[in-house]
Amino acid sequence: MIESGRPDRGALYGRRKGKPLRAGQSARLETLFPKLKLDLAQPAPADATGLFPVSVDAVRIEIGFGGGEHLVAEARRYPNLGFIGVEPFLNGMAKALVAIDELGLNNIRLYDNDAAHVLDWLPPASLVRADLLYPDPWPKKRQWKRRFVSDANLARLVRVIRPGGEFRFASDIDTYVDWTLQHTRRSPDLNWTAERADDWRLPWPNWQSTRYEKKAIREGRIPAYLIFARA
C-alpha cells in the first residue's frame, strides 16, 4: 500500500503501478473509475452521505485498501453504509473495481491519491469509522516520517470522525503497533478501547482477512487489531 505521512501532503511514497493490468481491469479503470472517483475540485457536501447515488445512513473510509478485499466485503455486508476507499496503487484500484462491478455495489466512492486530501476535504464529523489496515510500516528510522500515523494525520482523523466513532488499525509489525499506540496517546480525542489481551490479539467480529494479513501469518508474524474511540 502507498501512503503519505507528511503533514504538508507533499509526497506519496511507494510504487504507483506494478505488473501490467488485465484487459478487464484496464476497461474498468477507463469506464467505471471516473464515475466512482471523488472530485475534490468540487466543494464537499455538507453531509457526506450525499456522496452516494443511494441512500446511506453513515459513511466510513478505508485508507490504503490494497486489493480491496476488506473494503468490498464490508460494503457488501453493510449496504446501508457508504464507503470511501483510498488507494493510490493502480493495480489494487483495478482489482477492487472488478469486484465492485461484478457485485454491482453502489455504496462505494474511490480516490487514487493521498488520503490526507480526502480527510481535509470532508466536512467535520462526517465519518463513523476510519480503517487503516496493514499500512506500509516503513521500518527504517529514516523512513518513519513516511508512516501514515502521525500527529498531523491523527488530527485530520479526529476532525472528520464524529464523536463516538472509531479509528481502527491493524498491523503485523510490532514496532508500527507501538508507534501507533504512542501517537494516539498524545491525542486526547482518541481512546484505545482494549480491556483485555484478546481485544487486540483477536480479529474484530466479521473480520475479512486481506492478502497482506495472510502473507504475514504464513511468514510467522502476529497481527494486532486496535480500536480507538473518538471522544
From TrEMBL:
Pathway: tRNA modification; N(7)-methylguanine-tRNA biosynthesis. Keywords: Methyltransferase, S-adenosyl-L-methionine, Transferase, tRNA processing. Its EC number is 2.1.1.33. S-adenosyl-L-methionine binds at E62, E87, D114, D136. The keyword tRNA processing applies. Substrate binds at K140, D172, T210, R211, Y212, E213. Belongs to the class I-like SAM-binding methyltransferase superfamily. TrmB family. Catalyzes the formation of N(7)-methylguanine at position 46 (m7G46) in tRNA. This is tRNA (guanine-N(7)-)-methyltransferase. It comes from Flaviflagellibacter deserti. The lineage of its organism: Bacteria, Pseudomonadati, Pseudomonadota, Alphaproteobacteria, Hyphomicrobiales. The gene is trmB.
